Structures are given as structure tokens and as C-alpha cells.
Automatic annotation (TrEMBL), chains A, B:
Domain Peptidase M28 span(s) in chain numbering: 327-530
Domain PA span(s) in chain numbering: 147-214
Protein name as it appears in the record: M28 family peptidase
Domain Transferrin receptor-like dimerisation: 651-729
Record-stated family: Belongs to the peptidase M28 family. M28B subfamily.
InterPro entries cross-referenced by the UniProt entry: PA_dom_sf, PA_domain, Peptidase_M28, Peptidase_M28B, TFR-like_dimer_dom, TFR-like_dimer_dom_sf
One matching Pfam family: TFR_dimer
């Protein structure tokens, strides 16, 4: 393995031309000669891609509401199956039987007063918005419930919001809370509300985060109009994703199932999402203290915390049916190493029509499959096996991908070299996250993809945005001097979770975006009509995504030396450990000062006596932690990752297998505290952030949640994982 | 002179009791024995103060609209005159003839569409809100004008907002701008608009800064309702305040007057303030780019920059009359040093009823005069002469105080030991700003004033708020360790300006506030009814203000050694110079990086191509400046201010006179660039901030405005001023 570093002069060239001549390029895992051939192959691949065809696919697959369990959902799966077959792939359905509740009854009202509409209107400017078969606006996995209680506004519903409520003397116990979308994943909001004793939870889209505050509303502009509602799952998937009844195992027809009450990923309270039109009367009904500035949204009213003078009434029931979940699995057998799989996936189910989410990504993936099929017809065969997957049931909780991955866990841990995920896609900047051993590869791939709007490489454009958006001149300078981009770490929110965080399979997630902002997400307005106006007019970024994911697939499939760069993993994890030491030191300093402010009565002196705001509670002092075992482990990884490039075993099948299986060494068998399904010691979704990643989650969350005694245990688990990886790579490389 | 430093143990005691026993106290300028007597005098003074009487004064003086030139304005002056006389003072009117325009015609409309109401409605909850004689809603000193043009939204109307407009390709030339109140002084907004070629300016109160966003609106709560309008002056008083026709000279009946066209403090375009109810249709009429996030307010609409599809029409005319300006001047002759004056002032004119602004401060000042009058009846005589002033015409532009100060400039520069100003006052924290040689005195005074709500000293409470609101744990720790408070520097916005910035008389401004926020400012709702509910219920802080200002007056009046502490001035100015070197270094670094980002096309790469936003213009590089002359001058001041306390001349009349006249050494005869009226080299209102102070303004504004060649010249002027002060103090102290 060779580590590629951008020469500075090339980076400058990139800025002007965005392209290098093929003969100037090095590719990780390839000899110069093989690299030239691979780039020619990619050029031929590109010639097979058609953005018009991507657009046609989006139009066709988003033509009807097609959620899991629906007739059109099955039709979409069948269409994808037929497409793969027609492209020359060996495709079949992999069907699971999963729980998926849909609403029977939805009622939200101020008894004797306002009754919420709970309905998005059809618009003449949006051809599919009035179709039959739309799922009503709801949060999937809400409990059944019929509750009446006082209402309390809890801001974003974060743990710290409840700390403020405690200072304000407002309890949510026995009450219904109203939280707004944003800042944390939606499922975190009712979970934290439930932890604090709430009996129901309303989640609404405030126009500050999602509405007229951001731009003209649909259909005039892209942003959420007053009636738009964000549907979405509130499965507690930071415990485990997938079918709640079959954790750790595939939800086959005959699988052993938990009872619903036993499923720890299900909340116990009723939860309902509403529009800002519906939210306004409820917010206006609130009394109590005025909400602090950070809590205020963009509705034309004074935000109060509550409770209100009147009780409100929320009644919800669901059908709780087991439904078929149709994954499509398409394979193209490798010519040399058929038992090494390059797995690629995107889901096909939507909340409603889902032109952007997920069809924009699905269409790009199908375009890759079509292009590769054409290359095969021209005589090309990938050296490794390609496995292209179209997942069902992602929206309720990554059901299809999780069940398939759990069902094939052992085989995947043997064979899967990588899992490459996409989901929704739009105009803007490259988003790339995943296993950091793949960072070099991602940079090399992105270096050759031309941004459709600016003509520079997508990496150069991403570097520009990172430099411009850095907070200080000093950080801007650093970003300007940096070679390539850092890829992000993955939390949750799409189908990579089981692969990476449960099975330790190196994973990537790609998607373009940032100039496609709008309010269509999980609403009936995520339609083809919306998409072609606001998300990716001309489907240029659909094409860019096909290129990005397709080139990555092909480079991994054909590389003699698998293109993993564990040096980048070492550097990244080392950076995380530095962050953790700074986190602990910062928390220690702020705790000391805050406690001093509290003990010296500064809060009482400063707080407006008319506001009756209590001082915060004294917090336990932050002890000093022994990070040295982990730092020593990283010193070992430092040495071995520097030496890997010189291993005599490079290119051997055994060494390649060791490279792609190495990330499994970072799994901790017992998993994370209170959520054993999550076994990766470096990447996990945050317990209180949901989609948002926590890196080195065991240690980071123990510090953030002030579980001091847990910190050392978790440092121990990560240390052991890093030492396992070091020893494993040493043995594999024979050094 | 002795410098007092809080012993730490006392500071701790203060936190618990807020009070020290009299015998434990040192007072700057007093022997221990004299200090004890002075504190007893202050205790007797306090016994004469009545918060009920302060409330009664507020009720009486705010009973009718009483702007300058109105019948009730004259009646208020007469009442104050009678009061001073009845308290035993030698009082008289000092009348000037000043220009003061009131509206003849006001029209704002979308022709064929919305016509602005331009009217605040009477409320049954506010007894004076429906009275006759209210000034209509207007910006005083707007030009006459009848203009029709496209409308452009310019955010707060700051210079940097126009930089963004240029990037967005939107010009205001020949157009009318709409700016919102906040961030800069209101007069800066039309001034900058005019500089950019606008033909008219509307200023509105956005509910984000001043309305329902902040709390319940009047009359339910304190905040601005949709019809409330902030009147106010737009005199370009950073050029010079006071009567525009008589700069530098008192506007006596026979004074030489400029023609109106010659007055450089008058703008040339029509300007009108409006409510958010009136602003909404105009903002909704705008097209063009969506305003960037920092520009968006709290109205329920998408903020666009414009221009709008339709032109709008603004028509204003004014009567431009010369009107009498009635200052009340009350004196109490000093027993020992009658030619040393302690001058104290507060204005009496209001925009409408002005219960808070200015009557809350006026009532406290009258209460002091009453109490001192009682002490005099009991046999007390101040050693220095007290001069209590009630100013007319402050609202249009500090007219009364400026004309009086200009008229008595020579006498004041000889006799005025200090000028102590107050204005509106309310519940909350001590605000104290002014000449830093008085910082020690202010801390000693505040140490003995008990905060009515918390029972600690007002200094301890202020320290607590400074510690809590510091940005980082490190800064919080520093604030917690600090002894006493730093007083602020004065910009403009009340009647101290002529005394401090034109004449170099040491000045202070006091006021409580921070828990009295509301939307009544300069509206018909600044009423007694509003005041007693939201500003200072029970008039506790009115009493605290009487104590604070009164004790300060008495301590200066009776001190054998005048309580100036030039060490604090040295420390403060030295801090400002450090700020300036950091400002230059930071600007240099950010300019380099920004220019690199622009030259490397990063802005084009990052900017959403759909938004057509140009990159910023390349800026000139920031040269290195020679601060060493000023740093050397400060080293000299360092030495002399350390030695002052040991001067053998302490307590001599000549030394005392030198101490209070010393600040005049900091005046620069030529004044600041483009505004010679402002002569103080350390304190001035900012050219583009208005009320907001710029310290060491010549140098700071040259850097901020990128006038590189001016920086050295201004460093020279400040250096000369500091050297003059050092030499002067050396001579005076005989060291």
C-alpha cells in the first residue's frame, strides 16, 4: 500500500483546471500502468451515464407514494429488480417480515378550541401532491395513546433544555410537551420528554428552522409552507435500528420475535408531528415564563414556556402490522476474487413520493448499475464481486438494510470489503463520510469528478467551502494550506449503520448538497415537480453522484492492493483523542467556574428577580482521567501504520483480506453502554443526538454525561480495540 | 491623593452584607476622620430621600406631553425652577433660541396600495396615551422631501450592510431605503444611506429587536406593540451636537447663525420612523434576493433585499421654527471654594410624556436637590459650589446642554470640577461611565449603595453580572478575581457630550437598568402607567440613583484632596492602546486571508451559483504602524501617575485645580478628522456608530476606516496629548 499525498502544485492545478492528465495520476492500490487503465475504464463508465436518464428514473420511481408495505412500494421494488436484470445483473428480492405501524386515528385539539388540521393540502403546482395512498402526517413508532394534559414548550427538547426548565420551575411530569424540529434527531425529543415524565409529545416545524424565515415558501419557493409537515421515524435507533422485534437477527418469516412491550427501541408515549400553522394556536395558548432568546422561533408571537391555561388533548392509535420488506439484491460476480464483495446500497422506500429522499440517490445508483452492465457487455468484468442493494423500509428505521445485514452477518464479515451508501442527493458540495482508512481513496476519486457548476474538481470546491466557512483567519489559513479534504465520521440516518457500527465493515456515505435547501423533506411536496425546480435542475448532481460512487466501486473492485490507508485512520483517531482530552479539560475548567459562580450566589445577584429563575445545580467536579493507555496504544498504531506501506505482503489475497477485515478489530464485543448492538469503538450515533455522530462514543459520552467512573472503563475498551488493530496489522503485514 | 484598593476580605464581606462599618472605610480624598464625617453626612442625606416622592415627581412631570417648544414643556421647566427655589437653591432659567422642526406633512404609501398609519393608538390601560399635544411620529431633522422610488431593504443600514448590497448587485442610488432600528444609532442609518445615493430613508422597529420577539407587548407586557413607533433625532451629532445653526457658540437670541444649508449636522434626505405594522406591507412588497440570515427579523415573512416591483412614495415637510430652549440652572454656593463647581444635570424635555426618558432621572436629581436643601437648612454647606441643571431640548440633539456649555465654555473650563449626568433610569444594574480618573471614586460610592432587590452593594451586583456574562470560563475567572468594576467610556446620547468631549471637563454618567427592558422608548407609551408597571415599580431604583449621584456630588464637593485617580486613567488608556495594536494586527491578518480567498476564487467556488453574489472587493493590505511614540508617552504617564500620591502639594487649591483641569490637556485643538467640535483624544461617539463610543477615536477610526495615512497623524495627536498631560501633572505635583 502506498500513501498518496497531493503535491502542492497539483492542488493548484486542480484549482484552475480541476483535472489532471491521466498519465500524471497516481492511484492508491494501483501501479502507474494499472492506474492508467483504470482511468480509461472510468472514462468509458462515464460515457454510459446519462443525466436525462437519471431524471427519467427519478420521475418514474417517484410517480406515486411508495412507502414500505404499500402497493406502489412493491411496484418500485419490482421495477428496480427488473432494471437490474435488464442491465445484466443477477438480481433477486430479499424479503423480510417487519413491524410497521400506520395510523388509525389522529387527533390533536384544544378541547372546545382549535383542532389541528394534520393535513398537507394538494397544490396545483405539484402534480403528485393530491394523490391517493399518501401516508398521513405521523411519527412512526409513536405509542398508542389518548392523553389530556397541560402543554409545555421545551424548545428543541434537548437534555439541556430540561435543565433550563428545572431552573424555571416548570416540570413536564404528567404534561404534554411541544418541541420543535432541529438541533437533535426527532426521535431524541420524545425520548428525553419521556425520561422527564411527559405523557405526550408534539413536534412541529418552526419557520425559523424550516419555513419562511429561510426563503420563499412552496410552491413560490423551496421552503416549507405553513401546512407542510415532516413525517419521520422516532424509533429509538440509537439503541438498535431495524425491526424492533428482531434485534441482532434477520426478520425472516420464522425468526423469533420479541413482544412489542419487550422492544427497547420503542418509546411509550404518543408523538405527533405538526405544521407551523397547526402549532401556532397551541403556542399562543401558553402562559408561564417568556422563553429565553435561544428558544424563540420565527412565528409572530411571544414564545412562552407554559404551561397553558387550558389542557390539550392528543389521541393516536396505530395498526401495528407485520409487513413485507422487499430488498432488491443484485450481484455481478468478480472475475478474480469473487468472495470479496464491494457492497453498494441506497433505499427505495419513501415516506410519500420521495423524489429527493431516496429516489435521487436510487436513480444514481441504478445509473451506475446500467453503466457497469454496459461495460460488461463490452467485455469488462470486475475482479471483485459487486453487490448492489436497493433497501426497503429505511424510513421507519433502516429496516431492510439492518435485517439483511443481520441475516448475513457472518458472510458479510468474511466477504464485504466495503459498503458504499447513498441516499438523497442535490445541488451543491460533495458530502463524504465514513471509515477514515478510505479517506485517501475518496480524495483521489473526488479529484477527478468535475463540479457541474464551477468546472473545478468537487474536492477543490469542498476545500473552498471549508476555507471560507472556517471561523477565524487562522483557521482559514490552515484550511487554505490543507491538502485534500477530511471525510466526516458517520452517525446514523441511513443504511450504513448495520454495516459499519454493528459489523465493522469499512463504509462510506456519499451525497451532494448544500445548495438544495428546502422544506420538502418527508412531506408530500418531496415530488418530481419540487425536485426539478429546487433540488437538482438538470440532474447534473445526479450524474456527479453516479460518477463518485461508481468510480469508488470500480477502484475498489479492481485494485490489486486494496486502497485502504490506515495512516489516515491513525491520524483521525489520534485527533479524536486530543479532542477528548480537551473536552475533559474544558469541562473541568467550566465546572469549577460555574460552581464558584453558583456558590458565591452570583446567579441570584444577576437574575432578574421578577423572573424567578433558580441558579443551576452544583455539578460534580471533573476528575483527571488517565488517557495514557489509549495514547500509548495510538503510539503503537502510529508505528505500524507508518510501516505498512513497506510490507512485502502487499497485494497478496491474505493481506488484502486482512486490510478490509481490520476495521472489525475496532469492534468491542460487549458494545456501547446500554446499547450492545453498537459495537464500533470509534463511530456511533449519539445517544442524545440521534443522527449526529459521537466519535470514540464510549469515552465521549461518559464525559459528556458526567459518568466519571465509566470513563476509565471506556478508555480501556478503546485501548484494547486499538491494540487489537495494531497487532492484527502487524501480523498481517509481517512486520 | 491616595489610591484606594479593595482588600479582598472586604470584597467578600461586601458580597454577604453589602455594607461596611463606617470606621472601616477609606475614602479617596479624605482623611480617616473626614471620611467618617462625610459618611455620616451621606446617611443624613439618605434620610431625606423618599421614593414615594420620587414617584410623585415622575407622575407630575410626565402628566402631559412636554417636548421642547411646547406649552407643557415650558410648564415643566417652570415647575422645576420653582422646585429648586423651594428647596433653597438659587435658580433661574437660561434660555436659548434654537432651531427645532416639527412635522407639517407626513405621507408614506405604496401608490394605489398600502398607506402607512403613522399613528400610535390610545390605550385604555394607559391614561395619558390619548392626550392632545403629542408630537407625531417623526425623525427630527429629516429634510423636507417628496420622493418616489424603488425600495431597498438595508438591514441595520451599517456601512458593512452596503458592502453586502454591492456584492448582491443591488444599488440604493436614486432609491428609498428601509432600515431597521438597532445596532447603530438611528441617525447613522440615513447618513450612510445618503452617502450611498439614497433619496429617502424609512426606519422601522423590527419585532426581533423591539417587539413580541422579546416578550409580551404593551399593554399586556412591556414590549413594543405593532403600532409603537420610536421617534428620535437624526441630527448628525457626531459632527457636532446642539443647535445646528450655532456650532461652537451659545444660541443666544443675538448669536450669529448659519443658514440651514450651511449646517453640516443636517442630512439632505427625508427620513421617517414607522411601526412594524406599517413596515410589513413595504417589506412584503420587496423582490430581489432573499436577505442573508443575519439580516432577517421576526416578522412572519421572507425578508428580501429588493427592490420591490412597485415604487413607493414618501412625502415629508417640517416647520423649521426657531424656538425657546429653557434650561433651569440652580446653584448652591460653596463655603470654601465657591469657584470650584460640581455640575450635575439631567434633561427635562421628552418626546412625548417621557416618564422614563427623562423624568425618571430628573425626579432623582430633584430629590437630591431637595435633600441637599434640607441638609442646608440643618446647617450644612457644601465646600464647593453645586450647579444643578435641568436641560431642555436634549431629545432633538443635546440642544440645551450644548448651548449652555458653549455659552459658558471659558468659565466652565476654569471652574467645573466635574459634570455628573443622568437620564432615564430603571430596575437593574448600576451603569457608570465617564472619565476614568473618577473610576476609584465611583467604586467607593457604589460600594455603599445597597441594591434594593438583592441587599448587596450595587458594585457587588454589577461585578456578578460581569462575571456571569463573560464569554469563556477563563474570562469568568478573571472577572471573579477582579476588584471593583471598570467604568465604561462615554460616546454620546445624553448631555455630557459638550462637557467632556468639547471642553475636557471630567464627566460621569449614571443610570440603573437592565431589568426594565420594554418598547416604550420615545413613544406615547413612555408613560407613568408604563413606568410603574415595568420600569421601576416602587421607585426603588429612583432612590438608588439619587443616592449614587448625590453621594458622588457631596464627596467631590467636600473633599480636601479632589478624588481624582489618574492611575486609573493611565491603566485604561494603556489598555486601549493594547486594543488598537491588536485591532491592527487582527485586521492585517484577516485582510491577508480574505484577499487570498478572493484571489484564489474561493468565493466563486463556494457561492451558490443561483444567488449571483459577487465576491467581496480586494482590500488594501494593512501596513505596520509605529505605535512606539504613544507607548513611550504612556510610559511617562505611568511614572508620573505612580508618583502623584506622594506629591507634597496634595490638598492645596492649586493642586486641586490642576487635578480637575488636567483632562483638558487631552483635548486636541484641531479636533477629530472632519469633526473639529470633538476635541477629546480619548473619548468620542463613533462616526458610524453614533451613541456608541470610540476610544482613542482618531486612531481607532483611521484603522477601522482603512485610512492608513491618517493613522500616524492621529497617533501623533494622541501622543502629544498624553505628553501634555504627563508634563502638566509633573509640574502641578512638583515632581
Amino acid at each position: 500500500m502506498t500513501t498518496y499525498h497531493f503535491p502542492r502544485i497539483l492542488a493548484l492545478l486542480l484549482c484552475t483546471t480541476g483535472l489532471l492528465r491521466a498519465q500524471d495520476k497516481k492511484l492508491i492500490g494501483y501501479t502507474p500502468e494499472a492506474a492508467g487503465k483504470q482511468l480509461e475504464l472510468e472514462a468509458r463508465f462515464d460515457q454510459q451515464l446519462s443525466r436525462q436518464h437519471i431524471g427519467e428514473t427519478i420521475r418514474q420511481l417517484s410517480a406515486h407514494p411508495h412507502h414500505i408495505g404499500s402497493a406502489h412500494g412493491k411496484a418500485v421494488a419490482d421495477e428496480i429488480l427488473q432494471r437490474f436484470k435488464s442491465y445484466g445483473w443477477d438480481a433477486s428480492l430479499a424479503t423480510y417480515q417487519v413491524l410497521f405501524p400506520t395510523p388509525k386515528e389522529r387527533l390533536l385539539e384544544i378541547p372546545g378550541g382549535y383542532k389541528a388540521l394534520l393535513k398537507e393540502p394538494a397544490l396545483k403546482e405539484d402534480a403528485t401532491s393530491g394523490q391517493e395512498g399518501q401516508l398521513p402526517t405521523y411519527n412512526c413508532w409513536s405509542a398508542d395513546g389518548d392523553v389530556t394534559g397541560e402543554l409545555v414548550y421545551v424548545n428543541f427538547g434537548l437534555p439541556e433544555d430540561y435543565e433550563y426548565l428545572e431552573r424555571a420551575g416548570v416540570s413536564v411530569k404528567g404534561k404534554i410537551v411541544i418541541a420543535k424540529y432541529g438541533r437533535s434527531w426527532r426521535g431524541t425529543k420524545p425520548k428525553v420528554a419521556q425520561e422527564h415524565g411527559a405523557i405526550g409529545c408534539i413536534i412541529y416545524s418552526d419557520p425559523k428552522e424550516d419555513g419562511y424565515y429561510n426563503g420563499d415558501v412552496y410552491p413560490k419557493g423551496a421552503f416549507k409552507n405553513e401546512y407542510g409537515v415532516q413525517r419521520g421515524s422516532i424509533l429509538d435507533m440509537v439503541i438498535y435500528p431495524g425491526d424492533p422485534l428482531t434485534p441482532n437477527t434477520g426478520a425472516t418469516a420464522d425468526a423469533r420475535r420479541l413482544k412489542r412491550e419487550e422492544a427497547t427501541s420503542l418509546l411509550k408515549i404518543p408523538v405527533l408531528p405538526i405544521s407551523y400553522h397547526d402549532a401556532r394556536p397551541f403556542l399562543e395558548s401558553l402562559g408561564g415564563p417568556v422563553a429565553p432568546p435561544e428558544w424563540r422561533g420565527a412565528l409572530p408571537l411571544t414564545y412562552h414556556i407554559g404551561p397553558g391555561k387550558e389542557k390539550i388533548h392528543l389521541k393516536l392509535s396505530f395498526d401495528w402490522q407485520i409487513r413485507p420488506c422487499y430488498n432488491v439484491i443484485a450481484k455481478l460476480k468478480g472475475s478474480e476474487w469473487p468472495d470479496e464483495w464491494v457492497v453498494r446500497g441506497n433505499h427505495h422506500d419513501a415516506w410519500v413520493n420521495g423524489a429527493a429522499d431516496p429516489i435521487s440517490g436510487m436513480a444514481s445508483q441504478l445509473e451506475e448499475a446500467k453503466a457497469i452492465g454496459e461495460l460488461v457487455k463490452q467485455g469488462y468484468r470486475p475482479r471483485r464481486t459487486l453487490v448492489y442493494c436497493a433497501w426497503d423500509g429505511e424510513e421507519p428505521g433502516l429496516l431492510g438494510s439492518t435485517e439483511w445485514a443481520e441475516d448475513h452477518a457472518a458472510e458479510l464479515q468474511q466477504k464485504a470489503v466495503v459498503y458504499i451508501n447513498t441516499d438523497n442527493n442535490g445541488r451543491g458540495f460533495l458530502g463524504a463520510s465514513g471509515s477514515h482508512a478510505l479517506e485517501t481513496l475518496v480524495n483521489e476519486v473526488g479529484r477527478d469528478i468535475i463540479d457541474p457548476q464551477t468546472g473545478v474538481s468537487v474536492i477543490a470546491r469542498k476545500q473552498a467551502v471549508e476555507a471560507l466557512s472556517a471561523a477565524t483567519p487562522k483557521l482559514k489559513k490552515e484550511k487554505l494550506a490543507k491538502q485534500g479534504i477530511a471525510i466526516g465520521a458517520m452517525g446514523s440516518g441511513s443504511d450504513y449503520s448495520a454495516f459499519l457500527q454493528h459489523l465493522g465493515i469499512p463504509s462510506l456515505n456519499y451525497g451532494y448538497g448544500g445548495e438544495d435547501a428546502g422544506g420538502e423533506y418527508h412531506s408530500i411536496y418531496d415530488s418530481y415537480d419540487d425536485f426539478v425546480r429546487f433540488k437538482d435542475p438538470g440532474f447534473h448532481y445526479g450524474l456527479a453522484l453516479s460518477q463518485t460512487a461508481g468510480h469508488t466501486v470500480l477502484r475498489i473492485a479492481d485494485a490489486v492492493n486494496l486502497p485502504f490507508d490506515y495512516r489516515k485512520l491513525y491520524e483521525t483517531v489520534n485527533g479524536y483523542v486530543n479532542e477528548l482530552t480537551e473536552l475533559a479539560a474544558g469541562l473541568r475548567e467550566s465546572t469549577l467556574v460555574e460552581n464558584q459562580l453558583i456558590r458565591e450566589n452570583k446567579y441570584q445577584l444577576v437574575t432578574d428577580t421578577a423572573k424567578h429563575l433558580l441558579p443551576p445545580a452544583i455539578k460534580t467536579a471533573v476528575p483527571y482521567f488517565d488517557f495514557s493507555p489509549l495514547q500509548n496504544a495510538l503510539a503503537g498504531l502510529d508505528t505500524v501504520t507508518l510501516a505498512l506501506a513497506n510490507s512485502k505482503k502487499q497485494g497478496s489475497p491474505a493481506f488484502n483480506k486482512a486490510l478490509y477485515q481490520a476495521e472489525q478489530q475496532l469492534l468491542h464485543t460487549a458494545g456501547l453502554p446500554a446499547r450492545p448492538w453498537y459495537k464500533h469503538t470509534i463511530y456511533a450515533p449519539g445517544f442524545y443526538t440521534g443522527y449526529g455522530v459521537k466519535t470514540i462514543p464510549g469515552v465521549r459520552e461518559a464525559i459528556e454525561q458526567r459518568q466519571w467512573s465509566e470513563v476509565g472503563t471506556q478508555i480501556g475498551a478503546v485501548t484494547a480495540a486499538v491494540n487489537r488493530l495494531t497487532a492484527y496489522l502487524k501480523t498481517a503485514a509481517g512486520i
